[in-house]
Design brief:
The protein is an alpha/beta fold and about 260 residues long. It contains eight helices and nine strands. It binds zinc ion. Zinc ion binds next to helix 4 and helix 6.
Length: about 260
């Protein structure tokens, strides 16, 4: 099986398991403000919050935060401003990641990433114990591309909320997304969350996993990301990141203008 398929399956299964965990905190909690690792990127101050000690990665907090930083640097500044308002939390859930919109207080929205997600995706799965349970999981860090796949997927959810990409889809596109969610190969059969916004988040991940904001803009003829150098697609009805899904991203307000 191709690595991309494995990664896709991994991202789906993991992202949604965490959401399904009973008792998961839906908003950023006061006590999580304790342990932060601060860095600067694109003229903004960022904090990565570490909320427990389940780290057996052999990486320092600075090294973990640096993987976040390197991934963020691929994105346009207009998207980074949105992400900068969201709390990035490491150490929860035990497996994969999750997005928290925090409907009651949007200032407490968060992106959650497990410690294990910071391992190299090409390494063997690790068996570990977390919060009294046993897990086996692979990492989401791509050492070759220098990207954190789960982080890009979760950012995709927040960019989607902000620009109403999924909500604004015309009926025929919603049906296409629904078909993808129900087609194994396009979307993981075992994923627990099956909303069509998963297709948008995954397309966002695929886009910025293959290219960077700088590469897109370097090819732009008129200063618009839409005329820039676009990442390769995989055409075919069962491919998640095909030309049709690329067009959904490009035609959304999130691709209107980048600075
Ligand atoms: Zn998701």
């Amino acid at each position: 099986m191709k690595i991309s398929v494995l990664l896709f399956t991994f991202l789906c299964i993991c992202s949604f398991k965490s959401i399904a965990q009973p008792g998961a905190n839906l908003c950023f909690q006061d006590e999580w403000f304790n342990e932060g690792e601060r860095f600067q990127a694109r003229g903004m101050t960022w904090d990565v919050w570490f909320i427990n000690e389940q780290n057996n990665l052999g990486m320092t907090r600075e090294e973990i935060a640096n993987k976040v930083k390197i991934t963020l640097e691929r994105l346009p500044t207009s998207h980074l401003r949105i992400v900068n308002e969201i709390h990035i939390v490491v150490g929860k859930p035990c497996k994969g990641g999750g997005s928290r919109k925090c409907a009651s207080n949007p200032e407490r929205a968060g992106i959650l990433l497990s410690y294990e997600s910071f391992r190299d995706m090409r390494a063997r799965p690790t068996r570990y114990r977390c919060s009294g349970r046993n897990y086996t999981d692979k990492g989401a860090w791509d050492e070759e591309k220098q990207t954190h796949g789960t982080l890009l997927h979760e950012i995709g959810h927040h960019i989607d909320y902000k620009y109403s990409i999924t909500n604004g889809l015309p009926r025929h596109e919603r049906e296409d997304f629904r078909t993808c969610v129900n087609t194994n190969g396009c979307y993981s059969k075992t994923a627990k969350t099956r909303g069509i916004s998963e297709v948008t988040a995954q397309a966002y991940y695929a886009y910025f996993n293959r290219t960077t904001y700088q590469q897109v803009m370097a090819g732009s003829t008129d200063g618009s990301p839409r005329s820039g150098t676009q990442p390769a697609t995989r055409n075919g009805a069962t491919k998640l990141f095909n030309q049709r899904r690329l067009n959904v991203l490009l035609s959304s307000d999130a691709w209107e203008s980048w600075d």
